[in-house]
């Protein structure tokens, strides 16, 4: 109706909480600070990092990469054809196309480490694999990313 909605977690890794690093509750609220809304135009992808502090004053860096996907309109549209506002049946030669709507979808990486550029690159890789429809399982991609060694800032390569 109004175009406002709520975020929903579609998939997460790991699927269960780790004892020393629980999944941040309500993270979908941080993905779209202005609210989950449908748009009539596809916006360019965005990236930002939010810093969440838990009850133990530990920081969690939540990198968010958002892109927009086309959604199917569930409502058929009909338009008045004459000046009196009466609706007529569509003619087969002039179909009325419903307005295209785009919904935001976010990829989020949560870490205790502050490596924004690594987060951006990792989420960009996942996005590219998703958009290009490559036949690589998301589990394998994430598993490979988690085995990468990131050098300490100022340390040896």
UniProtKB/TrEMBL annotation:
It holds the Pfam family uDENN. InterPro entries: DENN_Domain_GEFs, Tripartite_DENN, uDENN_dom. Residues 1-157 form the UDENN domain. GO terms for cellular component: cytoplasmic vesicle. Residues 74-97 are annotated as: Disordered. It comes from the Eukaryota. GO terms for biological process: regulation of Rab protein signal transduction. GO terms for molecular function: guanyl-nucleotide exchange factor activity. This is MTMR5 protein. It comes from Smutsornis africanus. The gene is Sbf1_0.
